[in-house]
Design goal:
The complex is a heterodimer of chains A (117) and B (114).
Chain A (H helix, E strand, L loop, with lengths): L2 E5 L2 E5 L4 E8 L5 E7 L5 E7 L5 E3 L5 E5 L4 E6 L8 E8 L10 E3 L3 E6 L1
Chain B lengths: L4 E3 L2 E4 L5 E6 L6 E8 L3 E9 L2 E4 L8 E7 L2 E6 L8 E8 L8 E2 L3 E5 L1
Parallel strand pairs in B: 2-11
Antiparallel strand pairs in B: 1-3, 3-8, 4-5, 4-9, 5-6, 7-8, 9-10, 9-11
The chains are: A mainly beta (117), B mainly beta (114).
Chain lengths: 117, 114
């Protein structure tokens, strides 16, 4: 079974600073990996996805993530934080194991990003 | 595209009452998922459907919860009777059964049971 661990339930950065949100996964087969963002009182919005093509994936709002198989990691980064980036971020993994799994998503516990002026 | 539509957005009810949450998935999507989000337990998958058929309901907490998908454009999640511990935000998500399996989420229904 697949699993996801997000290191750090809260991350705080200053506006303009680098954002780094950590995600490690466990999967016995090549995974698909996703980052979602949730703004207050809203649903989850897809930021970016890794699908076994390029290991460096670019998403919306200037975010990107790099798939590192040797480290089983998929960390999310943004070079310069904006106040509008304050939200909760979820890493998720999906494996197409056939049968009835149908690529079910397994989510991490989430990381709340706070951006200080 | 209207995205995933959920109703109501907020529901306040008294313990013991029946609650029905509704979801309209994105047109053309084959799978539909119901999640529950709480501070204590995070995001939990309750049940999902593929082509209107329930595939995995192992996340449904107990028999008080039931879900249906009578057609490709509508699903309900029902709680009967409701209890205060059911208070949470309930999300519906849908996706196509091809490509990279990303799910698209609705805005959620915030349920409060008093």
């Amino acid at each position: 079974a697949q699993s996801v661990t997000q290191l750090g339930s809260h991350v705080s950065v200053s506006e303009g600073a680098l954002v780094l949100l950590r995600c490690n996964y466990s999967s016995s087969v090549p995974p698909y990996l996703f980052w979602y963002v949730q703004y207050p009182n809203q649903g989850l919005q897809l930021l970016l996805k890794y699908t076994s093509a390029a290991t460096l994936v670019k998403g919306i709002n200037g975010f990107e993530a790099e798939f590192k198989k040797s480290e089983t990691s998929f960390h999310l980064t943004k070079p310069s934080a904006h106040m509008s980036d304050a939200a909760e971020y979820f890493c998720a993994v999906s494996v197409n194991a056939g049968g009835t799994s149908y690529g079910k998503l397994t989510f991490g516990q989430g990381t709340i990003l706070t951006v200080h002026p | 595209d209207a995205g995933v539509i959920q109703s109501p957005r907020h529901e306040v009810t008294e313990m013991g009452q029946e609650v029905t949450l509704r979801c309209k998935p994105i047109s053309g999507h084959n799978s539909l998922f119901w999640y529950r989000q709480t501070m204590m337990r995070g995001l939990e998958l309750l049940i999902y459907f593929n082509n209107n058929v329930p595939i995995d309901d192992s996340g449904m907490p107990e028999d008080r919860f039931s879900a249906k998908m009578p057609n490709a454009s509508f699903s309900t999640l029902k709680i009967q009777p409701s209890e205060p511990r059911d208070s949470a935000v309930y999300f519906c998500a849908s996706r196509q059964n091809s490509g990279t399996y990303e799910q698209y989420f609705g805005p959620g229904t915030r349920l409060t049971v008093t």
